[in-house]
């Protein structure tokens, strides 16, 4: 059975440099605005050298998205059906907010792909992502039915967490322009925790 040869240290380093540079370029300019020449320059490689590792801009973009998708789904996967419902949901929100702090480029890469109609990950959105959200929505619906959290639409709760946490990465320039010197993440965790705790705490 044939197997792919193990990359040399230089090959592994160059591939990592290309993906790191591409993340910068794609997250700043989107897929359409980025060029192979810009990515090669940012990686410190010639264009022919880059094309040795990736035959096209599309191939680089797909490699980035493939590596990102599992990371992006992990916080929702970690929502524990056997945990304390309110604390599980607050922990999920915190994980998503921390990703916006630590991985803003990745968030913008994903957002740009979605805004363009998700041409490269549409199949994953309608299969893996949908299956995961369906499963976790059933858990949230059960928590509502059992009175552990206030009545809430499970899907729209998840959508709202995505929106309110990823906003800090996807609209970073706008947020920082409004806040000035204030660190956007100084008060965001407490604000969002208060918001969701009040929303989800059962009446009485």
From TrEMBL:
Gene3D superfamilies listed in its UniProt record: Homeodomain-like (1.10.10.60), Tetracycline Repressor, domain 2 (1.10.357.10)
DNA-binding stretch(es), residue numbering of this chain: 35-54
Location of the HTH tetR-type domain: 12-72
Protein name per the record: TetR family transcriptional regulator C-terminal domain-containing protein
Alphabetical list of InterPro entries matching this protein: Homeodomain-like_sf, HTH-type_TetR-like_transc_reg, HTH_TetR, Tet_transcr_reg_TetR-rel_C_sf, Tscrpt_reg_YcdC_C
Keyword annotations: DNA-binding
Organism name: Seohaeicola nanhaiensis
Organism phylogeny: Bacteria, Pseudomonadati, Pseudomonadota, Alphaproteobacteria, Rhodobacterales
Keyword DNA-binding: yes
């Amino acid at each position: 059975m044939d197997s792919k040869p193990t990359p040399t240290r230089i090959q592994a380093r160059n591939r990592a440099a290309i993906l790191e540079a591409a993340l910068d370029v794609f997250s700043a300019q989107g897929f359409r605005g980025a060029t192979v020449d810009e990515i090669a320059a940012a990686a410190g490689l010639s264009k022919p050298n880059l094309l040795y590792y990736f035959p096209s801009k599309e191939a680089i973009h797909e490699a980035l998205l493939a590596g990102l998708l599992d990371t992006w789904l992990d916080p929702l996967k970690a929502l524990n059906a056997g945990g304390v419902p309110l604390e599980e949901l607050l922990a999920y929100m915190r994980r998503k907010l921390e990703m916006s702090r630590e991985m803003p480029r990745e968030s913008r890469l994903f957002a740009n792909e979605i805004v363009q109609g998700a041409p490269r990950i549409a199949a994953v959105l309608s299969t893996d992502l949908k299956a995961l959200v369906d499963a976790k929505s059933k858990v949230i619906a059960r928590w509502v039915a059992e009175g552990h959290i206030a009545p809430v639409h499970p899907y729209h709760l998840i959508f709202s967490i995505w929106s309110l946490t990823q906003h800090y990465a996807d609209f970073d320039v706008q947020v920082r322009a409004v806040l000035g010197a204030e660190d956007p993440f100084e008060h965001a965790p407490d604000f969002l925790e208060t918001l969701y705790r009040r929303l989800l705490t059962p009446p009485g």
